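Narrative of activities, Objective 1.

The group set out to show that a structural description can be obtained from nothing but a protein's sequence at a throughput compatible with the screening campaign. Below is one input-output pair from the validation batch, recorded exactly as produced.
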Amino acid sequence: MHSCLDKDKNIVSTAYNIQYSSRVEEYVSSIQEDIKDILPPSKQYLARWISLKLLDENSSINNALKSNLNIDLDNNSNLQEKLLKIKSKLKEEGLSLSSLRNDIVLNIISEAEKIRKETCTFSNSKYNYNNKKIDKILTSKKFGIPIMLAFFALIFWITIIGANYPSQLLSNFFCYIQDLLLVFLGNLHFPEFLTNILVYRNVSNSYLGCICNASSDGNIFSFIYIARRFRLFTKNCFQSR
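Output recorded for this entry:
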Protein backbone atom coordinates (compact mmCIF):
# COMPACT_ATOMS: atom_id res chain seq x y z
CA MET A 1 0.00 0.00 0.00
CA HIS A 2 1.45 3.36 -1.07
CA SER A 3 0.38 6.64 0.46
CA CYS A 4 1.41 10.29 0.59
CA LEU A 5 0.59 13.45 2.56
CA ASP A 6 -1.52 16.31 1.31
CA LYS A 7 -1.01 19.97 2.24
CA ASP A 8 -2.76 19.45 5.59
CA LYS A 9 -0.48 16.49 6.32
CA ASN A 10 -3.35 14.05 5.97
CA ILE A 11 -2.65 10.70 4.44
CA VAL A 12 -3.95 10.38 0.90
CA SER A 13 -4.24 6.76 -0.08
CA THR A 14 -3.03 5.53 -3.43
CA ALA A 15 -3.64 1.93 -2.49
CA TYR A 16 -3.87 -0.82 -5.07
CA ASN A 17 -7.25 -2.41 -4.39
CA ILE A 18 -7.54 -6.08 -5.24
CA GLN A 19 -10.90 -7.12 -6.62
CA TYR A 20 -12.07 -10.21 -4.77
CA SER A 21 -14.91 -12.55 -5.57
CA SER A 22 -18.43 -11.13 -5.61
CA ARG A 23 -19.24 -12.81 -2.31
CA VAL A 24 -16.19 -11.33 -0.54
CA GLU A 25 -16.84 -7.89 -2.03
CA GLU A 26 -20.44 -8.06 -0.85
CA TYR A 27 -19.44 -8.80 2.74
CA VAL A 28 -16.65 -6.21 2.72
CA SER A 29 -18.96 -3.45 1.51
CA SER A 30 -21.56 -4.39 4.15
CA ILE A 31 -19.20 -3.69 7.07
CA GLN A 32 -16.82 -1.17 5.50
CA GLU A 33 -19.13 1.82 6.06
CA ASP A 34 -19.53 1.00 9.75
CA ILE A 35 -15.76 0.88 10.13
CA LYS A 36 -15.37 4.20 8.33
CA ASP A 37 -17.76 5.78 10.82
CA ILE A 38 -15.53 4.95 13.77
CA LEU A 39 -12.19 5.71 12.11
CA PRO A 40 -10.66 9.21 12.20
CA PRO A 41 -10.50 11.05 8.85
CA SER A 42 -6.78 10.44 8.47
CA LYS A 43 -7.32 6.66 8.78
CA GLN A 44 -10.25 6.21 6.42
CA TYR A 45 -8.03 4.40 3.93
CA LEU A 46 -7.73 1.52 6.44
CA ALA A 47 -11.46 0.68 6.36
CA ARG A 48 -11.28 -1.86 3.54
CA TRP A 49 -8.19 -3.54 4.99
CA ILE A 50 -9.77 -3.78 8.47
CA SER A 51 -12.93 -5.25 6.91
CA LEU A 52 -10.88 -7.97 5.25
CA LYS A 53 -9.08 -8.71 8.50
CA LEU A 54 -12.39 -9.07 10.34
CA LEU A 55 -13.66 -11.47 7.68
CA ASP A 56 -10.35 -13.32 8.03
CA GLU A 57 -11.06 -13.67 11.79
CA ASN A 58 -7.78 -11.96 12.62
CA SER A 59 -7.92 -11.54 16.40
CA SER A 60 -4.93 -9.19 16.53
CA ILE A 61 -6.65 -6.42 14.55
CA ASN A 62 -8.92 -5.44 17.44
CA ASN A 63 -5.98 -5.27 19.86
CA ALA A 64 -4.04 -3.15 17.39
CA LEU A 65 -6.95 -0.71 17.02
CA LYS A 66 -7.32 -0.48 20.80
CA SER A 67 -3.66 0.25 21.43
CA ASN A 68 -3.07 2.61 18.49
CA LEU A 69 -6.40 4.34 17.83
CA ASN A 70 -8.29 3.66 21.06
CA ILE A 71 -11.08 1.95 19.09
CA ASP A 72 -12.84 -1.12 20.42
CA LEU A 73 -14.69 -3.00 17.68
CA ASP A 74 -16.24 -5.39 20.20
CA ASN A 75 -18.34 -2.54 21.60
CA ASN A 76 -19.73 -1.65 18.18
CA SER A 77 -23.06 -3.49 18.30
CA ASN A 78 -24.01 -2.65 14.71
CA LEU A 79 -20.72 -4.05 13.36
CA GLN A 80 -20.91 -7.18 15.50
CA GLU A 81 -24.48 -7.77 14.38
CA LYS A 82 -23.45 -7.63 10.73
CA LEU A 83 -20.59 -10.04 11.37
CA LEU A 84 -23.03 -12.46 13.01
CA LYS A 85 -25.34 -12.18 9.99
CA ILE A 86 -22.42 -12.98 7.68
CA LYS A 87 -21.52 -16.03 9.76
CA SER A 88 -25.12 -17.27 9.84
CA LYS A 89 -25.46 -16.75 6.09
CA LEU A 90 -22.29 -18.72 5.46
CA LYS A 91 -23.51 -21.43 7.83
CA GLU A 92 -26.72 -21.75 5.83
CA GLU A 93 -24.62 -22.26 2.72
CA GLY A 94 -22.54 -24.88 4.51
CA LEU A 95 -19.50 -22.59 4.62
CA SER A 96 -17.49 -20.73 7.27
CA LEU A 97 -15.28 -17.67 7.56
CA SER A 98 -12.31 -19.89 6.76
CA SER A 99 -13.78 -20.40 3.28
CA LEU A 100 -13.75 -16.62 2.85
CA ARG A 101 -10.12 -16.65 3.94
CA ASN A 102 -9.35 -19.12 1.18
CA ASP A 103 -11.12 -16.89 -1.37
CA ILE A 104 -9.16 -13.86 -0.18
CA VAL A 105 -5.80 -15.63 -0.35
CA LEU A 106 -6.64 -17.13 -3.76
CA ASN A 107 -7.47 -13.71 -5.18
CA ILE A 108 -4.29 -12.19 -3.73
CA ILE A 109 -2.15 -14.91 -5.30
CA SER A 110 -3.97 -14.59 -8.64
CA GLU A 111 -3.49 -10.82 -8.63
CA ALA A 112 0.19 -11.19 -7.74
CA GLU A 113 0.61 -13.64 -10.62
CA LYS A 114 -1.12 -11.19 -12.95
CA ILE A 115 1.20 -8.35 -11.89
CA ARG A 116 4.23 -10.62 -12.29
CA LYS A 117 3.26 -11.48 -15.86
CA GLU A 118 2.85 -7.79 -16.70
CA THR A 119 6.12 -6.63 -15.14
CA CYS A 120 8.59 -9.53 -15.27
CA THR A 121 10.10 -10.96 -18.41
CA PHE A 122 12.34 -13.98 -18.88
CA SER A 123 14.72 -14.71 -21.72
CA ASN A 124 13.55 -18.31 -21.55
CA SER A 125 9.83 -18.43 -20.86
CA LYS A 126 9.98 -22.20 -20.32
CA TYR A 127 12.82 -22.08 -17.80
CA ASN A 128 10.87 -24.11 -15.22
CA TYR A 129 8.69 -26.12 -17.57
CA ASN A 130 10.37 -29.43 -16.75
CA ASN A 131 10.20 -28.80 -12.99
CA LYS A 132 6.50 -28.00 -13.16
CA LYS A 133 5.87 -31.08 -15.26
CA ILE A 134 7.72 -33.32 -12.81
CA ASP A 135 5.93 -31.74 -9.82
CA LYS A 136 2.59 -32.21 -11.53
CA ILE A 137 3.29 -35.92 -12.03
CA LEU A 138 4.76 -36.59 -8.57
CA THR A 139 2.00 -34.75 -6.72
CA SER A 140 -0.93 -35.97 -8.79
CA LYS A 141 -3.53 -38.30 -7.27
CA LYS A 142 -3.13 -40.74 -10.14
CA PHE A 143 0.66 -41.15 -10.10
CA GLY A 144 1.79 -39.75 -6.72
CA ILE A 145 0.91 -42.73 -4.50
CA PRO A 146 2.14 -45.44 -6.93
CA ILE A 147 5.45 -43.59 -7.37
CA MET A 148 5.83 -43.27 -3.58
CA LEU A 149 5.12 -47.00 -3.10
CA ALA A 150 7.63 -47.81 -5.84
CA PHE A 151 10.29 -45.76 -4.03
CA PHE A 152 9.52 -47.58 -0.78
CA ALA A 153 9.84 -50.92 -2.57
CA LEU A 154 13.17 -49.82 -4.06
CA ILE A 155 14.48 -48.80 -0.63
CA PHE A 156 13.44 -52.14 0.89
CA TRP A 157 15.07 -54.01 -2.02
CA ILE A 158 18.33 -52.09 -1.57
CA THR A 159 18.25 -52.73 2.19
CA ILE A 160 17.51 -56.47 1.95
CA ILE A 161 18.99 -57.60 -1.38
CA GLY A 162 20.70 -54.78 -3.25
CA ALA A 163 23.30 -54.13 -0.53
CA ASN A 164 24.63 -57.68 -0.95
CA TYR A 165 26.13 -56.87 -4.35
CA PRO A 166 28.53 -54.11 -3.24
CA SER A 167 29.22 -56.14 -0.08
CA GLN A 168 30.26 -59.10 -2.23
CA LEU A 169 32.58 -56.85 -4.23
CA LEU A 170 34.18 -55.63 -1.01
CA SER A 171 34.53 -59.18 0.22
CA ASN A 172 36.29 -60.28 -2.98
CA PHE A 173 38.52 -57.21 -2.84
CA PHE A 174 39.65 -57.81 0.76
CA CYS A 175 40.16 -61.51 0.17
CA TYR A 176 42.30 -60.66 -2.86
CA ILE A 177 44.40 -58.36 -0.68
CA GLN A 178 44.67 -61.13 1.89
CA ASP A 179 46.19 -63.50 -0.66
CA LEU A 180 48.66 -60.84 -1.78
CA LEU A 181 49.67 -60.12 1.80
CA LEU A 182 50.21 -63.81 2.50
CA VAL A 183 52.59 -64.10 -0.43
CA PHE A 184 54.33 -60.81 0.38
CA LEU A 185 54.83 -61.55 4.09
CA GLY A 186 55.90 -65.10 3.31
CA ASN A 187 58.63 -63.84 0.98
CA LEU A 188 59.83 -61.46 3.71
CA HIS A 189 59.87 -64.31 6.26
CA PHE A 190 57.69 -62.36 8.70
CA PRO A 191 57.29 -63.83 12.21
CA GLU A 192 54.23 -65.94 12.61
CA PHE A 193 52.58 -63.75 15.25
CA LEU A 194 52.80 -60.71 12.93
CA THR A 195 51.31 -62.72 10.12
CA ASN A 196 48.48 -63.75 12.46
CA ILE A 197 47.80 -60.10 13.24
CA LEU A 198 47.54 -59.04 9.60
CA VAL A 199 46.37 -62.12 7.69
CA TYR A 200 46.00 -65.77 8.34
CA ARG A 201 45.33 -68.70 6.07
CA ASN A 202 42.22 -69.57 8.08
CA VAL A 203 40.02 -66.67 6.94
CA SER A 204 37.64 -66.98 9.91
CA ASN A 205 40.53 -66.30 12.35
CA SER A 206 42.27 -63.47 10.49
CA TYR A 207 41.49 -59.81 10.92
CA LEU A 208 41.43 -59.24 7.18
CA GLY A 209 39.29 -62.34 7.00
CA CYS A 210 36.88 -60.72 9.45
CA ILE A 211 36.52 -57.89 6.97
CA CYS A 212 35.88 -60.40 4.18
CA ASN A 213 33.19 -62.15 6.20
CA ALA A 214 31.66 -58.89 7.38
CA SER A 215 31.50 -57.56 3.83
CA SER A 216 30.00 -60.74 2.42
CA ASP A 217 27.34 -60.66 5.15
CA GLY A 218 26.37 -57.12 4.14
CA ASN A 219 27.82 -55.58 7.31
CA ILE A 220 30.76 -53.40 6.32
CA PHE A 221 30.73 -51.48 9.62
CA SER A 222 32.19 -54.27 11.78
CA PHE A 223 35.59 -52.66 12.29
CA ILE A 224 34.84 -52.00 15.98
CA TYR A 225 34.53 -55.75 16.44
CA ILE A 226 37.77 -56.27 14.51
CA ALA A 227 39.61 -53.69 16.66
CA ARG A 228 38.31 -55.38 19.79
CA ARG A 229 39.64 -58.73 18.59
CA PHE A 230 42.99 -57.11 17.85
CA ARG A 231 43.15 -55.65 21.38
CA LEU A 232 42.33 -59.01 22.95
CA PHE A 233 44.92 -60.71 20.76
CA THR A 234 47.72 -58.32 21.77
CA LYS A 235 46.66 -58.61 25.42
CA ASN A 236 46.95 -62.41 25.27
CA CYS A 237 50.37 -62.12 23.62
CA PHE A 238 51.74 -59.95 26.44
CA GLN A 239 50.16 -62.13 29.13
CA SER A 240 51.70 -65.27 27.59
CA ARG A 241 55.11 -63.66 27.94
